[in-house]
């Protein structure tokens, strides 16, 4: 039998600029996303193998692109382990850390000859993926949901909060009618609503078996009230990447109304902290959803392997 595969000896850290243009733009409660700029991170080992990660900052979620680029540029081949340590140079630069961390795990898995999901302790090579609906009017939203279900999606997530409240209600109702009752339905407001609007919209669709609404209002302390008054649970997303709010996450869960966490590996700092957060969440009885928001194929692939 062969022994354990030794950890990689990194001989090169390469950073490749990348830019995505979204056509048409994605409309969310937090604004219109027209594109994304970032970097692909390549770690090369002594055999010439490469492992890949992504560091593409989301505006408002942490370091901007130029700061992330500088942080990555300071990581040397001999310093990868230190950079990823609990007090390492990338501790405060989560997107840069994610790029290095995912590339390290990818390289380690390749050296072992196993897929990343198996290296991470996953249990299945197949994961369910929700379709994202951001169409502005109800008819178009329903048509998008119908196409998603026809393509095999068993979950649909609707972006809400960018349209007037009555339009959002009509959009969600159109999606449920088009998708059918067997398809899971999630909403994401990106903190766009005030409390009264959140309660009004969610209360008006409470009969549609909505699994949860992500971040309905800007104040996490109001999540429990939203859930109590509407019957629709809340999922945490932006809160997890907000240092001040994340420090109170146990308190938020204790207050009630939280059903799930939505984990984006990049703003959380990569695979390692995401797995730790998922372990905590499951111990608290929460659903864990892994998400990749407008990532390149590298980021989406890493998220899919992590979800497995």
Question: Would you spell out the secondary-structure blueprint of this structure?
Answer:
Elements: E1 10-28, E2 31-45, E3 50-55, H1 65-73, H2 80-84, H3 94-112, H4 116-119, E4 131-133, H5 138-150, E5 155-159, H6 165-179, E6 184-188, H7 195-204, E7 210-214, H8 223-230, E8 234-236, H9 238-241, H10 243-246, H11 249-255, E9 258-263, H12 265-268, H13 271-283, E10 287-290, H14 297-307
Parallel strand pairs: 4-5, 5-6, 6-7, 7-8, 8-9, 9-10
Antiparallel strand pairs: 1-2, 2-3
Helix pairs in contact: 1-3, 5-6, 6-7, 7-8
Describe the structure.
With 308 residues, the protein is α/β, with parallel strands linked by helices. The chain has two domains: 10-119, Enolase-like, N-terminal domain (Enolase-like, domain 1); 131-263, Enolase-like C-terminal domain (TIM Barrel, Alpha-Beta Barrel). It has helices at residues 65-73, 80-84, 94-112, 116-119, 138-150, 165-179, 195-204, 223-230, 238-241, 243-246, 249-255, 265-268, 271-283, 297-307; strands at 10-28, 31-45, 50-55, 131-133, 155-159, 184-188, 210-214, 234-236, 258-263, 287-290. A seven-stranded parallel beta sheet has the order 4-5-6-7-8-9-10. Strands 1-2-3 form a three-stranded antiparallel beta sheet, with helices on both faces. The mean pLDDT is 93.
Can you tag this structure with a few keywords?
308 residues, alpha/beta, Enolase-like, domain 1, TIM Barrel, 2 domains, 7-stranded parallel beta sheet, 3-stranded antiparallel beta sheet, 41% helix, 23% strand
């Amino acid at each position: 039998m062969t022994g354990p595969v030794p950890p990689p000896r990194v001989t090169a850290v390469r950073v490749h600029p990348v830019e995505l243009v979204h056509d048409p733009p994605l409309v969310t409660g937090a604004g219109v996303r027209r594109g994304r700029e970032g970097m692909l991170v390549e770690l090369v080992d002594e055999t010439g193998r490469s492992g890949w990660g992504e560091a593409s900052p989301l505006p408002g979620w942490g370091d901007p692109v130029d700061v992330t680029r500088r942080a990555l540029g300071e990581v040397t081949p001999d310093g990868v382990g230190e950079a990823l340590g609990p007090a390492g140079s990338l501790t405060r630069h989560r997107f840069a850390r994610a790029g290095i961390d995912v590339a390290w795990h990818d390289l380690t898995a390749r050296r072992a000859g196993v897929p990343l999901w198996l290296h991470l302790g996953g249990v299945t090579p197949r994961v369910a993926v929700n379709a994202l609906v951001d169409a502005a009017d109800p008819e178009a939203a329903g048509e998008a949901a119908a196409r998603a279900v026809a393509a095999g999606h068993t979950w649909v997530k609707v972006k809400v909060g960018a349209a007037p409240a009555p339009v959002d209600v009509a959009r969600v109702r159109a999606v449920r009618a088009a998708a059918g009752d067997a398809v899971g339905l999630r909403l994401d407001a990106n903190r766009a609503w005030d409390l009264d609007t959140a309660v009004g919209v969610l209360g008006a669709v409470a009969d549609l078996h909505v699994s949860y609404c992500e971040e309905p209002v800007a104040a996490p302390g109001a999540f429990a009230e939203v859930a109590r008054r509407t019957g629709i649970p809340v999922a945490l997303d932006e809160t997890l990447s907000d240092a001040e709010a994340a420090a109170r996450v146990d308190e938020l869960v204790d207050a009630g109304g939280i059903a799930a966490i939505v984990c984006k590996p990049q703003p959380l700092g990569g695979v390692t902290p995401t797995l730790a957060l998922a372990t905590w969440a499951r111990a608290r009885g929460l659903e864990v959803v892994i998400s990749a928001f407008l990532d390149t194929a590298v980021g989406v692939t890493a998220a899919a392997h992590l979800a497995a």
